[in-house]
Structure formats: C-alpha cells, structure tokens
# Entry
Amino acid sequence: MRLCRYSDKNPAAWGYLAQTVNLSAGLILLPILGRSLSAEEIGLWFVFNSVIGLAHLVDFGFQPTIVRNAAFVFSGASSFKKTGLPTAVVSHQKQSQQLLAELIASCRLIYRWVAGVSAVVLFGAGTAYISALVPEGMSSLNINIAWVLCALGGVVTISSNYMYALLHGINRYVVVSKNTVLSRGVMLIVAGIGLFTGCGLVGLGVAVALSGICARWAGNRALHQHRITRDAFHLSLAVDGRELSVTLWYNACRLGLVQFSTFLVQRCSVFIASSFVGLKAAAGYGVATTIILVLASFASVVAQLRMPRIVGLIVEGDTDSLKSVYLETLFLGLGSYFVGLIVLLATVVFGAGYFNVPLIPVWQLALLGVIYALEINHTIAANVIAASNSIPFVVPSVVSGLATVCLGFILVQEFEIFGLIIAQGLVQIAYNNWKWPLVVSRIYGLRWEDVFRFVAGRGKLYG
# Structure
C-alpha cells in the first residue's frame, strides 16, 4: 500500500508507528549527535529547534481550531459558531460539502499569512539571533547555511499544517500518520547520512529542508486522493474564505495564546540556559528536554486518535461514553509515557559517557519526567474542554507561561539548570496541574468510583 493512500485499517497502530518514527528521529539522532558534533554545535542545534518552535507559534491556534471544526462538519454540523457547539445539525449521511469547502478556502487564506509571517520570523529575527550566538573559532558560514536550510524546512512545514489538521479532523488519522512516517523517515535517514559523512550542522539543515518539502507534497497529495476532500477542495476555489476566517480567529487567537504560553513553559528555558549557563550546559539540558518531549508526544497519540470521537460524543450529548473515552485516554497515554520514561532513564544511566556533552543528573531528568506527566494529564483535560468550542484557560496559561520565564530567570542564576526545572514544576502545580482535570470531572460528573469502576471493568465504565 502506498504511504499517502487512505485506509481505515489499524489507526492506532499507524499512530504509534508515526510517533515511533518521531521518537527515532529525536532519540536515534542523539547518540550520533553526541559523537559527531561538538558540545557547542549540539547547543546550537537545540537553539535551531527552539527558534523553529517559536515560529510555529505564528500558527496561533488555527491548527487545533481547524481540527475541531472539521470534526464538527463530520459530526453533522451545518454551520460554524464562534463559540459553543453548533446549533443546527444534519444527519451524518448529509455532511455539507459547501461547509467543508468554506473551511478549506479559509484555511488556504489564513496559511498564506501564517507562512509569510513565519518566514519573516525565521529568516529575519532568527538569523540575527543565531549569528549573535556563534562562538569564536566556529565557521559562521557553515552555521548560517545550516540555519537557512532549517528555516526553509520550518516555513514549508508550517505552510502545510492546515492540510494535516483537515485530515485529522475528518478522522483520516491513518493518512496523517503515514505521511508523518514518510517525512520524518526522510529527515532521519538524510540527517544520519549527513552526520556520518561529516557534514555536521549543514547535513542536519538539508534533512530538515527535505523533510518539510516531503510533508508539504504528501499532505497536498492526500487531500486530493480522498474523494470528499478532493471535491471540497475544488469547490473551495470559488469560495471566499474571509468571513469564516473571522469566525475561526475568535477561538484560534485564544488557543494561540495558550500555545505561546506552552512554548514559554517548555521551550523558552533553552534560550535562558544558552544565555546564562552557556551552550555546553544548554546542550545537556536540550538532550534531556528532547527525550521528555518526545515521550510526551508519543503519549499524545492516544488523545489525537480520540479527538474526533470526543467531539462527536459532546455533540451527541453521550456523557457516559465520553467519560469512558476520557479515562481510556488518560490511562493509555500516561501508561505509555511512564514505560518509556523508565526505559530512557535506564538508558541514560548506562550510556551517559557516550556523549560529548555533559548530561543533567538522572534525578533531575526523573523530576522533569514527573513534571511533564502532570503536564500531559492537565493537557488532555484541557483538550476535552476545548472540544466543546470553549477556551476558559487562556488567562491562567498566559500567566503561568510568564511566571515560568520570570522564575526561571531568577532561579537559573542560583541553581543553574535545576532552577529552570523547578521553576516549571512549581508554577504548573500551583494551578494548571489540578484545575483543568477538576473542571472536566465537575462538568461530566466524573467521580473516583468511576475511575475504580473503569479499572475493574478493564477499560469499560459501564457494562
């Protein structure tokens, strides 16, 4: 079967395979990076990734908003609303091609601007920042070439995000997963060849650029291969997407602020580390956060697979089934995360001497793992809340992000990398870690006995 072809078979298996390739791209490269690059080059590589992650924020919440609204269309909605559930619903057999065409037209319009702004961020501010970080004795030309290639891959990838959001929202997660396997596999293979042949950061830049081009090509091909999206895409060429763009912006801007806050919590610490404790220490911390973020991404597959189903259950008002899906998502997501965390902690214990860069102590890595487990728990709860087209966690997220950065600036000067870790943990446990799981429990009447009944029923809450 060709990679970009639609198939309903084994969505979970393909989802985990896609994240395994993501896991491989992040983790298999780590020991190769550790032997092929200097500590300063490794530090720059993690700064590259953080700057590209910053540029992804230009998306500003449109991607999850598109997923949710595409899921509304395929749950029977006949109109979009700025907030709340759709008021008019048609039968599932009469899904509105016109509505989907309006959504696609709006997506194309929005992402022209998104890609343009991200290009300015990466090639403008990003280039200036990277140039200022280059240590004496390193080749500025090679580093700038590597960065331009990475920036190109970032812009192309960002421009294709709406394609995968549409496919995800209409429950074509298998296609999304196959294309992820393809693009990330290209990145892993090309990066490995580049590092083994001594191309260094330039080889990594070529890998990122080719991966982005591959993702764009595969996403466009997938949209045109499936009959529903192909017909809607052609219909969208005659549709003005500006009016719907305003509707989408209402909640997208709120999710964008949440994503920006998440970036501050999870990624801004790399900038702080590189500025206050040097590129070598930032490289060690970058390795640790890469490991944890990859595991968290792997755990998120469960939530991603179930999001269209969750939206459908909310539209239908099936609270009992929704509680079962929510608990299943938590157990599978956190369970897979902790299994991976234990394996990786053991790997770091026995393989720390392999790297050219000093890793953070294992106990700090374990603490970081627990902090991200709590993050996964409240993020899943927040996604369930957002599935009803309501975003009540904007202000707490922004406050938490800013507080994490400010506390990180203070503590890093006294405790170095450990200060960045405890800053994130203290701020999140003060509110977000417990608030949003509690909100979900209250909205849907979820009690402790439901959790025990779910476990006793081996994944079934009722019956």
Observations:
- Residues 11-456 form one domain.
- DSSP finds 19 helices and no strands in the chain.
- Confidence is low (pLDDT under 50) at residues 1-7.
- The chain has one domain: 11-456.
